[in-house]
Write a structure and sequence with these properties.
The complex is a heterodimer of chains A (385) and B (285). Chain A contains 13 helices and 15 strands. By secondary structure, chain A is of the alpha/beta class. Classes of the chains: A alpha/beta (385), B alpha/beta (285).
């Protein structure tokens, strides 16, 4: 399926990441957004609120983030592509509905323009401190997909990736922007609509009476439905059976929760997006993601010119974690450095997977500013020597 | 075919889910009976009726009605219904939940949906307690009434729900008890036909918790109380219909308005400002 040519702002633009995210959502076919103002994400919904009345979309500013994070799910069940947008404190409030999206298998996009925390923290300054929250923030066992862009162009491109994942895997998808990438101005190329590939929502073709909303007929996803199709569906946040009816026992729980996880974990190879270069035979490989990967890329270029053998891995999808990729890295390098704008979150995943095979080092930052180029260079030299 | 008469409410129920979870003497089932009849009277096509509930005893209503239905999170039925209603302008969206769910944890959403005049009907079954969790105090528990978390009697001020809904701009506001089944059915029918936000408070007994803990007897005794001490005052000033412990209950239809709905207001403004550049939101149609 291609994007709608009457809505896509095709052409070259000089815009920031937040605006690019809004345009990307429009290109992805999103026509319902519920949100609540919060720095540094607000420009996304401001852009949406300007554009939607001209393209037949609906933006509603709700009374809080709790409301926003479930309001858009009502629109999804009506048959729309929809999302909500926020930052740290708002995302914390939304966590219950991340769980609702997971258990009801509602295709959901949560945009998080990250800022420093905890609590009100640093509203106007960047961080990458919500990586583990995205993965574990709501109670219970479930899986999510998370994507981290590093430029305004990627804010456009990868919010579309998020919508496509949401449709394909019917789970909560986090778009893990940050303040820097959100407010960074850059050249953004919005392609013609017919060059934008979208995953269309496929509704069940089974007639009422021959369809159960949570039964697996083919593959490992139930077939999607929307209201008004005649199936009289019931959707609940309680543990449920194939009919969607509450089923309060461990057997139903086991079956449901394991499937909610396996439907993501069995597709890591298809979901995973990463970039790596010169890992093989390197003395050290540096792993990073989001805006931090831009500084890391520059640092690696500089030290390579000085003759150091340094590999580089950039994770675009953060969750599900690509264990195979990191295991391969550990086979082909002598040490790993993880650089992130937090006091060490993704490094735990890397350490877990590497399991002592090579040393794993951390370049951390408490948030509020980008990692310094010199800090990265020094650490690379220290570990490589 | 047998000649056994079919209960007229069966059509709206998921009979395969019976028996329901509600206790003997509970008023929720009675309200659902009235609702089923109101849906028929309002001639609402079941494919265009969607019921959304929060959490709690009344929150289970969504699971028993045979329409597209959603059992959401605690207090958040209204914002879910907001997204659904805006995106399905051809459907009627009903939020069916309890006093704790709608007025405590969900209170903020209740007042804002009424203020925005979102096209939905909210049915609030008020049994003065959190039934599902064992009978704790709610914003509607009367002063001095005992609850499991007010073992010495409630000492907080209480909500006057019709007054709250009225003040926030609801287009139709009514209150009945589950004794008043015909009147309740009539008001539900009216609410379903109301354009914009309508609100019905249904006073109902919780014999297992509220009645027992306050030594008020069983469900039948509650109905006797409703019969003896309710006065019908259609058009009453909602400021005067507050409740206190075992007080007289003013019932009736209190408010009828015809203001622009959220969607009408949106379209009007956008047409004025954007003219032909405005593309109305059609939702999923």
């Amino acid at each position: 399926m291609k994007a709608d040519p009457t809505a896509v702002a095709s052409g070259m633009h000089f815009i920031d990441g937040n605006e690019a995210c809004g345009e990307g959502a429009i290109a992805a076919g999103c026509r319902f957004v519920a949100g609540y103002p919060i720095t540094p994400s607000t420009e996304v919904v401001e852009q949406i609120s300007r554009r939607f009345p001209k393209i037949g979309g609906m933006f509603i500013q709700m009374e809080d983030e709790i409301a926003s994070s479930i309001c858009f799910q009502g629109a999804v069940w009506a048959g729309l592509k929809a999302m909500t947008v926020s930052s740290g404190p708002g995302i914390s409030l939304m966590m219950e509905h991340v769980g609702l999206a997971a258990i009801t298998e509602c295709p959901s996009v949560f945009v998080n323009v990250q800022r420093g925390g905890p609590s009100t923290g640093l509203p106007t300054l960047p961080a990458q401190q919500d990586v583990m929250q995205a993965r574990w923030g709501s109670h219970g066992d479930y899986e999510v997909i998370a994507v981290a862009p590093s430029s305004p162009q990627e804010c456009f491109d990868h919010v579309i990736t998020c919508f496509n994942f949401a449709e394909k895997y019917r789970c909560p998808v986090f778009f893990m922007m940050d303040e820097t990438v959100g407010h960074m101005l850059g050249k953004v190329k919005i392609p013609p609509a017919d060059e934008i590939e979208l995953v269309e929502r496929v509704y069940t073709k089974r007639p009422p009476g021959e369809y159960l909303p949570y039964k697996i007929y083919e593959g490992d996803q139930p077939e999607m439905v929307r209201v008004g199709m005649g199936h009289r569906i019931h959707s609940t946040g309680l543990t449920h059976d194939e009919r969607g009816y509450p089923e309060m026992n461990w057997q139903a729980q086991d079956k449901m929760v394991r499937r909610l996880c396996s439907k993501i974990n069995d597709h890591v190879d298809e979901i995973s997006i990463a970039q790596s270069d010169e890992v093989e035979g390197s003395d050290v490989t540096i792993v990073s993601y989001g805006i931090t990967s831009r500084v890391v890329a520059y640092a690696v270029d500089l030290v390579r010119k000085q003759g150091l053998k340094v590999g580089r891995v950039r994770l675009v999808t953060l969750w599900p974690f690509n264990e195979k990729l990191i295991k391969d890295v550990a086979q082909n390098t002598k040490a790993i450095i993880v650089a992130e704008m937090n006091l060490g979150q993704m490094v735990h995943e890397v350490e877990r997977v590497v399991a002592g095979k090579v040393p794993v080092h951390l370049i951390d930052h408490a948030g509020g500013a980008m990692l310094e180029l010199d800090t990265i260079i020094e650490k690379i030299k220290e570990v490589a020597s | 075919m047998s000649d056994t008469p079919v209960n007229p409410v069966n059509d709206l129920l998921r009979l395969e889910r019976m028996p329901h979870i509600w206790c003997g003497g509970c008023g929720i089932g009675t309200s659902v009976n009235c609702f089923a009849r109101a849906v028929a009277k309002a001639e609402i096509d079941h494919e265009h009726l969607h019921v959304v509930s929060g959490i709690g005893c009344t929150g289970r209503v969504a699971g028993y009605v045979n329409v597209d239905s959603f059992h959401t999170t605690h207090g958040r039925a209204i914002p879910f219904a907001t997204g659904l209603s805006l995106s399905r302008p051809d459907s009627k969206v009903v939020v069916y939940s309890g006093d704790g769910d709608l007025t405590a944890i969900g209170g903020n959403h209740l007042i804002h949906a009424a203020r925005r005049n979102i096209d939905m009907t909210v049915i609030c079954v008020n049994n003065f307690t959190y039934g599902m969790t064992g009978g704790q105090v709610t914003p509607t528990t009367p002063y001095s009434a005992k609850a499991s978390t007010t073992p010495y009697g409630n000492y907080e001020h209480t909500f006057n729900l019709p007054n709250l809904a009225d003040a926030c701009g609801a287009q139709f506001v009514a209150r009945w008890t589950v004794y008043h089944v015909r009147q309740l059915t009539r008001s539900m029918t009216k609410a379903l036909k109301t354009k914009g936000f309508s609100f019905i408070e249904v006073i109902a007994p919780c014999p297992t918790l509220y009645q027992r803990r306050n030594k008020l007897g069983d469900g039948v005794m509650a109905l006797q109380y409703y019969k003896d001490q309710s006065t019908i005052q259609n058009g009453a000033d909602t400021a005067d219909v507050g409740l206190s412990f075992q007080s007289d209950i003013v019932v009736g239809e209190f408010v009828e308005r015809d203001n622009l709905t959220f969607m009408e207001g949106y379209e009007k403004r956008m047409k004025e400002i954007l003219g032909d550049g405005f593309v109305p939101y059609k939702g999923a149609k």
